[in-house]
Amino acid sequence: MHIRTGWRAWAVVAALGLSAVTPLGAAHAAQDASPGDIVSAEPSAFHPLPGQPTGTKAWKVHYRSTTATGAPTTVSGTVIVPQDGRAGPRPLITYAVGTVGVADRCAPSANFPEGTGLEANLIQQLTLRGWAVAVTDYEGLGTPGDHTYTVGRSAGQAMLDAARAAIRLPEAGLGEDSPVGIMGYSQGGQASSWAAELHGSYAPELDVRGTATGGVPGDLMKVADFNDGSYGSGLIFMAAIGQDAAFPELRLDSYLNPLGRSLVGALRNSCVADGAVLGSFKTIDSMTTRDPLDQPDWQQRLRASRVGTVKPDAPVYLYHALADELIPYGVGKQVRADWCARGADVEWHTVPLGEHVSGVITQSPLATQWLADRFQGKPTRGNC
Questions:
Q1: What angle in degrees, to the nearest 10, is found between the helix axes of 220-227 and 233-246?
Q2: Cα 284 to Cα 1: distance, rounded to the nearest angstrom
Q3: What are the sequence ranges of the domains in the chain?
């Protein structure tokens, strides 16, 4: 991998002991960089609970990535490295969190220093093994513009570029030979699945050993139909914000009635806890003058985020809760069928007890051990 000009300039600044935060605007900086180049970096902290020590160092980074339409953009994230005295390359996990909301204050990088990150305890399972972790904030979450929530290509590219950025961060002590694992659940399951599918075409230089992904919303049309008017209906409207952010020609506002405009405005300033309450049990019909999901352009964009159309080039650990109340079990099972039909190496697990949130809690240790086996070169146990 060639050392990029943007990274080299940043490294000079860092070596001089100066602030690494660039004064350039995000869009301008991204134009002059390559995917994964660091635009800025500054010390941060990683706490699973407020004030809880973790024996890690962390940096908040802004790095160059690519939008769903191929334009350069800047995404923020966090690089976390155990301070365990380990010499030589260590495994790197590029990690995508589940839904946190669409307001900038919901970004993982804003919550890790405060000990309020929703999946920080799961991430700590990784750092306790001596692995470095790169956690993307996703496009538009913590950076200008709306978060492109549920736009698969954007999320997958942001994950792969987060791994590149971690490797290019001098203080992290990683290298081009660092083995990489991809991990995520729910929204992070979509992102990690897309990263697995995009690896060979978008970031083939990364030494990806495997992907652990679960609760995957592989078909957004089916997920929307399942949640319309239910407990999880707020996710539909957050997804509409995300799709409209990536593809402004969809003109979401033109479909909303006054109630819909009020709800979407509130969701834009909400994190997942309050957003779920605001959006629960709302129907698309009650918030719109006409259903955007009936329109060919919306259908096309949602289909473009479908998971299962490309064979991942590294093994996959895929799991889904049988009683998932937000993402239908059948949607996850279809991802397995599609990948298996394309010849992917998939180890599929049904989580027989629990629901959406408990699915990641109970499976995370098993998925982590599966990644450890990949780093150790053990044979896979695909069950297509």
A1: 140
A2: 47
A3: 5-218+311-375, 232-304
pLDDT score, position 23:
32
Which residue in this structure is represented by tokens 């290509």? 153
- What are the pLDDT digits (tens) for 263-315? 999 999 999 988 888 999 999 999 999 999 999 999 999 999 999 999 999 99
Q: Which token pair is 331?
A: 């949607």
Fold type of domain 5-218+311-375: Rossmann fold (3.40.50)
pTM: 0.92
Residue whose token pair is 């002590």: 173
How far the first Cα of the chain sits from its last, in Å, is 35
